[in-house]
Amino acid sequence: MPEPRFRRRKEDRPQEITEAALAAFADKGYAATKVDEVAKRAGVSKGLLYLYFKTKEDLFKAVIRSFVVPKIDELTAIIDSSELSSEEFLRGPFLAFVKTVPGSPISVLVRLMISEGPKYPDLLQFYWENVVSRGLAALTVILERGVKNGEFRRSVVTDLPHLFVMPVLFSVIFKLLFEKQCPDTDRLIEAQIDVLIAHMKGEIQ
Amino acid sequence: MPEPRFRRRKEDRPQEITEAALAAFADKGYAATKVDEVAKRAGVSKGLLYLYFKTKEDLFKAVIRSFVVPKIDELTAIIDSSELSSEEFLRGPFLAFVKTVPGSPISVLVRLMISEGPKYPDLLQFYWENVVSRGLAALTVILERGVKNGEFRRSVVTDLPHLFVMPVLFSVIFKLLFEKQCPDTDRLIEAQIDVLIAHMKGEIQ
Amino acid sequence: MPEPRFRRRKEDRPQEITEAALAAFADKGYAATKVDEVAKRAGVSKGLLYLYFKTKEDLFKAVIRSFVVPKIDELTAIIDSSELSSEEFLRGPFLAFVKTVPGSPISVLVRLMISEGPKYPDLLQFYWENVVSRGLAALTVILERGVKNGEFRRSVVTDLPHLFVMPVLFSVIFKLLFEKQCPDTDRLIEAQIDVLIAHMKGEIQ
Amino acid sequence: MPEPRFRRRKEDRPQEITEAALAAFADKGYAATKVDEVAKRAGVSKGLLYLYFKTKEDLFKAVIRSFVVPKIDELTAIIDSSELSSEEFLRGPFLAFVKTVPGSPISVLVRLMISEGPKYPDLLQFYWENVVSRGLAALTVILERGVKNGEFRRSVVTDLPHLFVMPVLFSVIFKLLFEKQCPDTDRLIEAQIDVLIAHMKGEIQ
DNA sequence: AATGAATGAGTATTCATTCAT
DNA sequence: CATGAATGAATACTCATTCAT
Fold it and tell me: CA D154 to CA C112: how far, in whole Å?
């Protein structure tokens, strides 16, 4: 008995399709990915894809939105529920979270944002509001708390949460481009955090 | 019959074309740039462009090669000719050089490498050999010299020259994507160098 | 549980669908009308529509057939039941009937026949047999009766009933295309009939 | 020796293409005509067609414009250069001109305007301004001249130049749809003109 | 009978590349 | 050398039709 040509699974389709799209975009980038290819990967006809996403661009935006926001939610959830000191938090949950990024599917999204972002200002806006600024804000909360506690001295470092994010972006890209020559990204990230914390604490290293 | 005011010499053509291409790629990215558009910008016919570059991909590779190598040559030249201490070098010529990158035309190349690199392994190889590894090697020379001098303690930092490059990559991308919300990149870069040097020197900050 | 206020009966369905189709075709023409749209207008699912009409073309043919024949039946009925002289008939019931055409839903059918007819010879055949030739035949009966009566002289006019139909077709099309610049179609139609009758009667106007 | 794949004939191309398009539209109507088909008929590649006409719609508009305006220019030229009395003009050059329309390539344009016009208001506007209103104006000039001369009585007929155009539109459409059953269109047109002139002259017929 | 999710052939349009001039 | 007219393969998107439910 042959497989039925139609499977009705309305609820699951959008997710199945965005997952396939993420994989395809990861492989070839946005422009080089054919809609046909995404449909095939999702085990779905092109027509159905267009039932859920009006255009290829739409699909792209949906991919960005649906995979990135949950991840950042994860981070803020950790902060809110944590009773740790700032240093403990940075060395513990934050470091752990941040190490998972390079090599995870999200790293693909970073590449997509860099490649295609400039063409879609609204998407950048969304990304800024829902990911980057939220991430930086979360870090700022931690750093400020550390200053208030007396754990940290106020300095450029407590002022520039970007310094804590840098190694992640760097690792993602380095790994993407020069897998072979890439240093141990965990070590790189740890080193940066170490250096920054030491600096904030005013310790002799 | 009056002489044309500017007589274009054959030898300049390829460069004129790669410059036009760089500008076009900067505006729209590789895939979205039409060969027609590049030819128009270069003030040249499409046919002539194809006389110098066999394919669009060829042109792309030429762009990468021709703009990036001179820049890295610049850096290594500075190192070789410099009599400064390691710290002086890092805070002086290195910092100065590195600050010029975000916002310069080369930053465009970074985006191009990220977007298109994975499709062209030979280009990545070239980029690694001629840019990244040379840059890291130059830094390593400086750091080792500092350790030998007794200026710096040996540590993860002297071991990971990547830490010195991170803020540049970060700034380039941040500026590209979030121009509006971008922090002062000079300050960001300086902060990182400060923190790293302080750490290597074992000083209280 | 309250009775639904309107219970749709199965028997009405085809008619409801052809009505929706006529409206949709009127708006956008045949090719530009989507089956989906017709189904929605009819308050019916696409699947059900296909239960009644095998193809879109089928639906189209049903539309033509179902709206045009009753109209022409109306006209012949008037003729058969009328005791009037030929002139009275032409100036009375015929004129009245004919004036209602431009601006009525049937005028849409005219456009459809002109646009799509050439693709469907069987439909044209049907249209000819059931509408045009019957209409012309009815007119011929009247004109012949007038000649027999001595009301009218025999001439090209009594020979070409088409002359009486011309202003209707003209008005329908003019109104369809140039609503804004369209002359009063009633006046146009009346003028034509006047002129023709005067001619047949041999009167000085 | 094989035919050269490329023939450079920049000047002739647009006309060659519009001619092919007119023929294709005549055969199948606008919607059912494939751009591929037009290109093939014109002996040209699809790409080249798109070099001259940005879209299929554009091509359609060009077809309408390029074939219709010359025809109406012809008519107005005849009027301007004629020394005839109004009746002589109507029975002579006007009648002759008007008889050529049904069956000529322009008759195709009439069908196209009816089918597609309502979708392109700007095209209808163009058609109105450059064809219909100019044609009616030309007729009005003739009729007014006849009234001034004393040739004609003023009446609805001198007021409604549309009456003179009606048989042309009617013949075009009748021929298009019911070729087989179509009366002699020359005779139909002549009859209408006869009747109208007789009426304007107030003669007993 | 009734639904609407699913299909896929069909089409307009683009753009890197070629080649007659 | 230089041009840009000409090509055609490639691709996003549509919509009549089918069929599992």
Answer: 38
* Residues contacting C183, CB < 8 A, separation 6+: C174, D160, D162
Letter for the amino acid at D6? F
The tokens of B121 are what? Answer: 């392994």
Q: How far does the CA of residue C51 sit from the closest CA of chain D (Å)?
A: 26
| CA torsion through residues B168, B170, B176, B181, sign | negative
Which candidate, B171, B64, B53, B44, places its Cα nearest to that of B109? B64
Tell me what pLDDT residue D2 has. 46
What whole-number distance in Å separates Cα of residue C64 and Cα of residue C44? 21
Span D93-139, pLDDT tens digits: 999 999 999 988 889 899 999 998 998 888 899 999 999 999 999 99
- D55-92 in b/e form (b: 16+ CB < 10 A) is ebeebbbbbbbebbeebbeebeebbeeeeeebbebbbe
Q: Other CB atoms closer than 10 Å to residue B135's CB: what's the count?
A: 20
For chain A, which residues score pLDDT lower than 50?
1-2, 204-205
Report the pLDDT value the prediction gives residue D1, as an integer from 0 to 100: 40
Which phi-psi region, left, alpha or beta, contains residue C73 (left: φ > 0; alpha: ψ -120 to 50)?
Answer: alpha
The strand E neighbours among A residues 134-173, by Cβ under 7 Å, are none
A177 chain-B contacts, CB cut-off 8 A: 113-114, 117-118, 124, 127-128
Give kind and range of the element (H or E) at residue D5. none
**List of chain C residues with pLDDT < 70:** 1-11, 204-205
- Chain A to chain B Cβ contacts (< 8 Å): 134
Closest-CA residue of chain C to D205 = C202
CA D38 to chain centre: 22
Q: Which of C197, C200, C188 is nearest to C101 (CA)?
A: C188
Q: Hey, what are C106's tokens?
A: 């049937």
Measuring from the CA of residue A47 to each C1', which nucleotide is nearest? E7
Q: Which residue is nearest to nucleotide E7 (CA to C1')?
A: A45
pLDDT at D159 > cutoff 80? yes
pLDDT tens across the length of chain B (205 residues):
444 444 455 668 899 999 999 999 998 989 999 999 999 999 999 999 999 999 999 999 999 989 988 888 888 888 888 889 999 999 999 999 999 999 888 898 999 999 999 888 888 999 999 999 999 999 999 999 999 999 999 999 999 999 999 999 999 999 999 999 999 999 999 999 999 999 999 874 4
Count other Cβ atoms within 10 Å, centred on residue D184: 11
Is the Cα dihedral D74, D80, D85, D87 positive or negative? positive
Distance to chain C for D156, nearest Cα, Å: 7
In angstroms, the CA C92 to CA C95 distance is 6
Q: Which two tokens stand for residue D59?
A: 């091509």
Q: What does the alpha-carbon distance between residue C169 and residue C188 come to, in Å, rounded to a whole number?
A: 11
Q: Is the CB of A54 under 7 A from strand E?
A: no
Half-sphere exposure of D143 (CA within 13 A, CB side): 23
How many whole angstroms from its chain centre is CA B191?
21
Task: Give the start-end residues of each E strand in chain D.
Answer: none
Q: Which helix (H) or strand (E) holds C55?
A: none
Tell me the C-alpha distance between C72 and C131, whole Å. 6
Task: Give the nearest partner residue to D29 out of C115, C163, C183, using CB atoms.
Answer: C115
Q: pTM of the entire structure?
A: 0.87
CA B197 to each of CA A192, B147, B191, B193: distance values in angstroms, whole numbers, following the listed order: 13, 12, 10, 6
Reported confidence tier of residue D89, pLDDT bands at 50, 70, 90: very high
